[in-house]
Amino acid sequence: MKDVFISPSILSADFTKMGTAVKTIEDYSDYIHCDVMDGLFVPNISFGPKMVKDIRKICTAPLDVHLMIVEPERYVQTFIESGADILTFHIEATKKPADVLESIKARNIKSGLAISPDTEIDTVRKFLHLCDVVVLMSVYPGFGGQKFLEKSIERLDRLTELRNKVNPDALIEIDGGINLSNYEEVIAHGADILVAGSAVLNAEDPISVIKEIKKIQ
Ligand code: DX5
Ligand code: ZN
What we know:
Blueprint: E1 5-8, H1 18-25, E2 32-37, H2 49-58, E3 63-68, H3 76-82, E4 86-90, H4 97-105, E5 110-115, E6 133-137, H5 151-166, E7 171-175, H6 183-188, E8 193-196, H7 198-201, H8 206-214
Parallel strand pairs: 1-8, 2-3, 3-4, 4-5, 5-6, 6-7, 7-8
The structure holds D-xylitol-5-phosphate and zinc ion (ZN).
Zinc ion binds next to β2.
């Protein structure tokens, strides 16, 4: 069986107890997913580089920073300095995805594009060779706790096929509405990294959810 990685999104944590939430899950998480929202690219505002930097100080797991901001090129350096280990941004948010991917790769961290639910999968084709990760959004970006969009399975198939052809080393990350009832299906359709926000952070026992997804004792 292939490796499956889990990246719990702290967007669903109680922000007044962020440190405790991170410490609870870090030993069982492959990454900690940090959702950065600017109120422009998406209709919500979450947190910025200081939160990432403060989490970095207390957290041993790598940080998977998902930028949902317009012109992400303005903040690449800031988030790398804050401690991002993976930095992804939306293909819809910039006119120069290749330049942004290259500028992230030059800093020796992993880079990737995120694709919103209404964006053609094929738009990433010409940038795929520069991606370590491609984030397929399975909800409209902006909020945690939304329902998984069923059309994402077909889109995942298309992205998996494209990835296998163009850059088999790139990992596919699926983000939005992942829970214990659908994680097996998205893995079967090619997902390598599973983001899970509410399903993990709002669970009574977050670790048991992670263990079930990763099939560990
Ligand atoms: C949505 C975010 C997601 C979200 C996932 O804009 O990018 O990462 O926090 O949360 P759940 O798993 O609750 O859908
Ligand atoms: Zn996200």
